[in-house]
């Protein structure tokens, strides 16, 4: 898989998480992806934070500072209308990728 495919998959996971869960801090995003995937997917913070920064610059997410349940200062991210549109595009793109892989696996 090309780097852009992996980046697109991470974008999809983050955008879908924010669409489902609302505003979350980075660690909350990591935990949700891990739990929702039944521990099959793990996102490293070293990959997540550059992706969040890039998505924020693209206008797909917005952030603001807040406090966690344990009263720690954290940046919370939420989906923007542009991000909802990008999520739809990312889901369609991913479905095409899955379709292509399935077709390839059935090829004899």
Short characterization:
This protein is an alpha+beta fold. The protein has helices at 3-21, 26-36, 45-57, 81-106; strands at 24-25, 61-67, 73-79.
Rg, nearest Å: 15 Å
Alpha plus pi helix count = 4
Share in β-strands: 5-15%
Strand elements, count:
3
The CATH architecture designation is: Orthogonal Bundle
Please outline the major beta sheet.
3 strands, antiparallel
Question: What is the CATH topology assignment?
Answer: Arc Repressor Mutant, subunit A
What's the helical proportion of residues? 55-70%
The helix-and-strand class reads: alpha+beta
Mean pLDDT: 93
**Shape, principal axes of CA atoms:** globular
Return residue spans where pLDDT drops below 50 for at least 5 consecutive residues.
Answer: none
Question: Superfamily at the CATH H level?
Answer: Winged helix-like DNA-binding domain superfamily/Winged helix DNA-binding domain
Strand numbers in spatial order across the main sheet: 1-3-2
Tally of distinct domains: 1
Succession of helices and strands: HEHHEEH
CATH C-level category: Mainly Alpha
The first-to-last residue Cα distance is 22 Å
Provide a descriptive summary of the structure in words:
- With 108 residues, the chain is of the alpha+beta class.
- The chain has a single domain, classed as Winged helix-like DNA-binding domain superfamily/Winged helix DNA-binding domain (Arc Repressor Mutant, subunit A).
- It has 4 helices and 3 strands.
- A 3-stranded antiparallel beta sheet has the order 1-3-2.
- Strand 2 and strand 3 form a beta hairpin.
- The longest helix is centred in the C-terminal third of the chain and has 26 residues.
- It is globular.
- The mean pLDDT is 93.
């Amino acid at each position: 898989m090309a780097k852009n495919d992996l980046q697109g998959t991470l974008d999809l996971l983050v955008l879908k998480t924010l669409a489902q869960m609302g505003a979350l801090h980075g660690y909350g995003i990591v935990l949700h992806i891990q739990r929702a995937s039944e521990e099959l997917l793990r996102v490293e913070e070293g990959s997540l934070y550059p992706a969040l920064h890039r998505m924020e610059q693209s206008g797909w997410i917005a952030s603001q500072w807040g406090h966690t349940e344990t009263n720690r200062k954290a940046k919370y991210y939420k989906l923007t209308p542009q991000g909802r549109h990008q999520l739809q595009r990312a889901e369609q793109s991913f479905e095409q990728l899955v379709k292509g892989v399935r077709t390839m696996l059935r090829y004899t």
